[in-house]
Prior knowledge:
- By secondary structure, this protein is an alpha/beta fold.
- Helices cover 47% and strands 9% of the residues.
- It is built from 20 helices and ten strands.
- It has an eight-stranded parallel sheet with strand order 3-2-1-10-9-8-7-6. Strands 4-5 form a two-stranded antiparallel sheet.
Amino acid sequence: MENKICFRRFGTMLDCSRNAVMNPDSLKKWIDITADLGYNTLLLYTEDTYEVDNHPYFGYMRGRYTQAQLQEIDRYAAQKGMELIPCIQTLAHLNAIVRWPKYAPHVDTADILLAGDDAVYDLIDSMFASISKCFSSRTINIGMDEAHMIGRGKYYDLHGDSDRSQILVEHIKKVSEIGKKYGFTLAMWSDMFFRLATGGDYYAKEAQIKESVREQIPDNVTLIYWDYYSTEKERYDRMLTSHEKIKAGTWFAGGLWSWTGFAPHNGYSMNATHAALTSCQEHGIQDVFLTMWGDDGAECPRFSLLPSLFYASELAKGNTDMQSIRQKFGEKFGISFEDFMLLDLPDTPGGRADEICDAEKYLLYNDCFTGLVDSTLSGGEGSQYAHCAKRLAKWENHPQWGYLFATARSLCETLSCKAELSVKTRRVYEARDKEALKSLIDEYRTLLARTELFYSRFKKQWFTENKPHGFDVQDIRLGGLIRRIQSCMERLQELYDGKISVIEELEETQLDFHGDQAAFRQKHVSFNSWKQTVTTNVI
């Protein structure tokens, strides 16, 4: 008989707030797969992507789940023996609603609600009222993470300089009372307790939480220690010990890296998960889940993380034998473990699979003329991506998972043209070689065709897994990329035809992406920002 999961709760958390709102059919598929692997919990992270009674602008045009959809998903999860837990925000990370005049007066600063404001607590009450009708679980994650500027905006104007830890505690107290009204036990991210005590560092070794703060944490509030970054068990040991000193019953949230570009990071996820789960077992942590965020566009498909998802479930059952894990994965999914891991390739085409990088995103959006991230290139990336595309082609016709490989292959084929194109463009421009310029223009035509094909495959992948809302951002980004490639090609053609003699962007001296001209050649980096990659101008 197969070993059982060693934790009371063992689950995943799907980010449905950063454009990619997983559609109900895909959610059911996710529940089927994770329940079969032994997971018994699913958290839906919804900042504003759920229906709140009497708040029509809450999640407006964002693909929010209707109450009927959430009720249906909750029933389906229960049938599979899985607890569906709502994961919302009651302090920060509410940037999508503050754009509306209805909510703007009740914001402290940035995306942080104004603590102490009666309208804020009316809104939170409405959140709880709606959530309580949709979820059978009486446990809720109330967020409250990364409110770095709490008390420094409108709150400061109203109340002056205040103890920010006390502002947080008083807010938690009021939210906890609302939670009690609806019968909820609350779990919250713990980082703000540490950040306020250390000046901003969550993982500081000498964090000292005031006893007065510790004593005021409500009895129906549990802390969640989140850490996705470390591959060293020592940090998890230290942080779990620190949390237990604040309040017993700490939850742990690790990460399956889905939030840095188009490709997953299964390799790094497994290294971090091994260290984290080993520590959690030794510390007797009972509630563990693995987050899957969608930073800066949520381009990465969640199902591409199946290797690390499977690996984590085997660790939680006590199986650390990689040969056994690989064999069981292949038997279950019909693709070998090693081949499914090929989906990691676009991130580090010539590097190690256990590094964090999102080269496939910033090289895709790196401008053909300005080349802001050219200094991260060392040469040969184009041929590396061509090789990756050939390796990914093996599984693109798989009946269930082929769409993942087809999209990844098309991305790599695009990057085989695009990765070094800005460098080559500058080199050809400086040489003023007409034959080389003619050949370069042909490469731009090839790139356009491949980018269009990638767009179509990525669109199919998105609509397979997600609601259509949020793809407008991809239309804007990829459509803008296609038009920019065309524009650059047209200007190169004008140069070839003698209609212009200068391309001003190519006349400028490039500065190093890292800010150090002496270190102009750098290895690939993790830089997941479309906005800062495509231009230095204002968007």
